[in-house]
Amino acid sequence: MNTYKFPVYNVKMADDTYRVYEHKTDKSLMVAPSLAKTMSIGAAQGATLGLVDAMTPEQQMQAAAQQHLNNTGRGQCKITRGYLLQKPLYEFWYECPAATVTPVAKPAAS
Questions:
Q1: In Å, what is the CA distance from 28 to each residue of 50, 51, 64, 84, 88?
Q2: Cβ atoms of residues 64 and 31 within 8 Å
Q3: Cα–Cα distances in Å, from 94 out to 2, 51, 57, 88, 108?
Q4: How buried is 28 (Cβ within 10 angstroms: 0-12 exposed, 13-18 middle, 19+ buried)?
Q5: Which of 41, 78, 99, 106 has its CA 20 to 30 A from that of 31?
Q6: Is the pTM of this model over 0.70?
Q7: What is the mean pLDDT of each run of 10 residues along the chain (110 residues)?
Q8: Which of 98, 85, 81, 78 is closest to 21 using CA atoms?
Q9: Shortest CA distance to 61 belongs to which of 92, 35, 28, 94?
Q10: Residue 108 to residues 46, 102, 103, 104: CA-CA distances in angstroms?
């Protein structure tokens, strides 16, 4: 978790505003729900002795990660895999298509 860059990017979705961090070198993102949601998850689990899982579903976290890619001009990139890093943090890996290079026309010989 120490290898993710700051600042945090706030990604507003219909259900919450997610916090997204970019890895310094890898093509991965760490995603967490808002601080308010994170505190409510902890409160719900504490009050029920861990019997209630109030975690945000992985699909919603992944959608926030994809939206971050879209917001930062990388909409062509796609999330390839993800997993629970540590409650309530998820890590998602993404891949981007290779850039298409247009050959530069050589000047005509004189």
A1: 29, 31, 13, 13, 17
A2: yes
A3: 19, 33, 19, 20, 42
A4: buried
A5: 99
A6: yes
A7: 79 94 93 77 52 67 96 96 91 87 54
A8: 85
A9: 92
A10: 75, 18, 15, 12
